[in-house]
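User: Earlier you gave me the apo prediction for this protein. Now I'd like the version with flavin-adenine dinucleotide bound, so I can compare the two side by side. Same sequence as before, with the ligand SMILES added.
Assistant: Got it. Here's the input I'm using:
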Amino acid sequence: MKGAVRVGVVGGSVAGCAGALAVAEAAPEASVVVFERSAGILHDRGAGIAIHRHRFAELAAAGFLDASLTGFRAETRRWFAREGTAEDPPMGKALGSHPFPFTSHSWGELYRHLRGRLPERVDYWSDAQVTAVRPTAAGADLLLADGTAESFDLVLGADGYRSTVREAMFPGVVPQYAGYLCWRGLGDMTRIAGLPEESFFTVGHATGHLVAYPIPADTGDTALNWVLFSTVPPELSPDPTTATSLPPGAVSEALLDHLETVISDQLPPYWAEAIRTTPHEDIFIQPMYDLEAPAFARGRLLLLGDSGAVSRPHAGAGALKAVQDAATLATLWPQATDLDDLALRYDAARRPAGHSVVALARRIGEAQVTNVPDWAAFEEPELLAWLETLTQAADGTVMGGRPL
Ligand SMILES: Cc1cc2nc3c(=O)[nH]c(=O)nc-3n(C[C@H](O)[C@H](O)[C@H](O)COP(=O)(O)OP(=O)(O)OC[C@H]3O[C@@H](n4cnc5c(N)ncnc54)[C@H](O)[C@@H]3O)c2cc1C
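And here is the structure of the complex with flavin-adenine dinucleotide:
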């Protein structure tokens, strides 16, 4: 497909930057405008991201990532739980370990890496909120918060889990609260003894589990990225219809107190202390959601990243999936006869992939948070057999995502 089309991208985060890059690379004659409602550089969307190295290599070959993105190579994932006996080691009972070919990165660096790859001719508008999307016969109009409107031949919805573009395509299709949340933070590695950078740990507890791994933090130091998943009592549950993430500084005392109760009562002391190295004002919360848009394209509107499919973080594939969406778009562009054909091909390629990651992550979350096993009873063979059934889907989707 050739021609000077005008492409609007709503959302300028991981999916938005990757999507704009895809169009710029695949269609040098196209003009691309990115609308990002936040002002300035995004930095507070997430702390750590772990990416499967085989998936990273595919995206590097496709021209979206490269080795300049710093990261720590994990080789092994190690599982622990508190047995509650006087002989418990500080990290808890070692339940088992298995190969884990993931590299941990900082979310902020991944975003800057993608944004830095955008050629000059991509117009990136910050502080530009799209308030409504109006499909037209030849594309779509975007209405902006400043009262202006822009017309496009094609619009990429890269505007995350509460997407305005998706709402225009499928009114009322919204994320479904999964019944639990996570506290997140960056621990101070100078106060946490005994963790090499090449580490990836999971610690089971009675209402969920903790995931912890070092990352190269935005400050230049090494930090311990930790994510504690847990169900919470009804009085602390977020409103399932409207809840959004609570950024650092906005988490209530009641939720911080509950975190302290979970880590003191349920975690081995080593891990509780590691979490306590994060000041309360730096801890943030993300409610867990599932979302599968019925299609990833409708007319001239396409969905990329979380706007089309939100997977719980357990599959370690959300950001990766967003970049894969973009890479697929770049591959399909030259094959498509026109924009309508492109939309059909894109939906056929990416909807099954997105839905499959959501399903895998849901299955892991149900088994490891809402219906936890007796973690401390596991011996390594049983643990590994259980994990194998949980983390592999029949269609080839595995922990870390699906091959591109
Ligand atoms: C706890 C946790 C851990 C995770 N760990 C991993 C991991 O290890 N590996 C992995 O691959 N993924 C992981 N993920 C998932 C990953 O962070 C997301 O899937 C990914 O960031 C989604 O990117 P996105 O660009 O689609 O959406 P977002 O990052 O949400 O970006 C959407 C953008 O659109 C903008 N926007 C929204 N509405 C509008 C509008 N109306 N107008 C203009 N702009 C708008 C927003 O400001 C935002 O910048 C994790 C997620 C969580 C919650």
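For your comparison, keep in mind: The mean pLDDT is 94.
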